[in-house]
Design goal:
This protein has about 550 residues and is α/β, with parallel strands linked by helices. It contains 22 helices and 14 strands. Helix 17 packs antiparallel against helix 18, helix 18 packs antiparallel against helix 19 and helix 19 packs across helix 20. The chain binds adenosine-5'-diphosphate. Adenosine-5'-diphosphate binds next to helix 7, helix 13 and helix 15.
Amino acid sequence: MLNFKNKKLIYSIIALVILLILFLFLYIKNQAKSINYDMYNTLLSSNSIKSATIEDDEIILKTKNGIKYKIVKDGVSIKELIKKVPLRVEHDSTFATDLITGIILFLMVFVFILYIRKKDMQERDKLEQKRTRQQAFEIDNFMKTPIKPVVSNITFKDVAGINEVKEELSEIVDFLKNPTKYKNFGIKLPKGVLLVGPPGVGKTMIAKAVAGEANVPFFYQSGSSFVQIYVGIGAKRVRELFAYAKRYAPSIIFIDEIDAVGKARGGFRNDERESTLNQLLSEMDGFEDSSGVIVIAATNKIEVLDEALLRSGRFDRRVFVSLPNKLEREEIINIYLKDKKHKINTKKIAEITVGFSGAALSTLVNEAAINALKSGRGYIQDSDFYAVRDKVLLGKKKILSFSKEEKEIQALYQSAKALCAYWFDLSFDKVSIVSDGIKDIDKEIESRSSMLSKIKVYLAGMVATELFYQDRFSNALNDLQKAKDLANIMVEKYGMGNSIYPNQLDSANLLESAKEDVKKFLESYKDALKTIQSKMLRDEIVTKEELKSIINEIF
Ligand code: ADP
């Protein structure tokens, strides 16, 4: 759409062009054609001349059909002329008429521009009014959605396959159940817990289960709802949310998609988001550890979060929730089949659903049930699952589903990462076929060699596929990006390249030499890698302990 400034410019240009055309038209129209004496005589004798005007040293003749001619005054007998036609004498009259016409035209154009501007302003006012009404309506709606605690009837047993997460959170549940016990003992508990994991793995469900287990009220707020609102409103809402939660304490505030509010500040500024984030930070700093309010937030992009949110005293407890492994998928499938008639080999279904989240599995079971109902069979069987699997897969983007070959490649890729993570001493408990589970522990001071080790692990999968398949694959995308980012930071920020002053080639050299190291390492551990790959293919997971015993066996 044209904005106001552009419109004004375009109208002015149109007006100028009109003015020019009019001038040109008048000029051409008023232009008299020079004639010679013979022609003049013919006109005079045929009585064709209607009027004559003396202008300086020329006579302008106007014929009865409106045509204008001019002739030099000296060659004409004025006496004869006035006998036949009335004669006027004018000095510089054309200039005067032109000037007047010009002024009139100019005024006309000016009035035209004024008229257009007025119309435009009216239009703008209308739009502005509409926008204000819409804004008021949205704010009203947002504020009208009451901040209401929900009583959660979900408990940990409804959430399948997250045993470690349950363990990590059991302390929080206990604290919410008996805050005074902790208070009397002077124990400080985290104010915030950050649940990190891909969509659909049950983060919301887990937060609700914590509330359900502890039997405390649950306040839900989606991070993205804050930022669509106008300046000041998000911050106000945060204030109210905390005020309510404190009133109902012990209680849980759950902020879904916190990255919408908590993206790192700077860069593209968004005042509303920043004011909401600042309010959230100050609320979290403001309440005492014993207030009995725990803030649980969920995100699938921890790397974009503002550092301030992750600082101690805020979301300093982080719980990673990954896609379910084979056993967990079986558990989830069983939960959803519980109240349905079926003859399902759940182990088999778990095997064909690598990469499915809990949410996708719940949809899958539902679709299979619909399929069974349509067939009129009365119970669900394996074939129903096969029939709807692609539908669920295609409907839900980004769900991994590996063919047999892909599964082998991915297992090798992850096994190489696991082996390197173990060898280069990175912190992790287990590596699965879909996630590496490597913990990115914040350190105040980190060495060049420790950063290099991380780069080596990021590159390990790619190097392994080169060794075994003489090829590279697209599943290296994320790790490759991480390796490049880290190498760039090392060179540019920490002076860890060849020279202290950053040099473009330094990051590339750093990556290449790390890759060479990994290659040498993996070449000498090809057998171990194969053993880990088969274990990964069978169980989809390998723990640090298992890695240790595989490596020890080789020596
Ligand atoms: P997230 O918050 O991680 O995006 P949700 O908690 O909203 O995921 O999960 C969406 C739905 O998926 C849940 O309502 C539940 O039906 C199902 N679901 C996800 N994970 C699990 C699980 N571990 N056990 C049982 N159901 C699950």
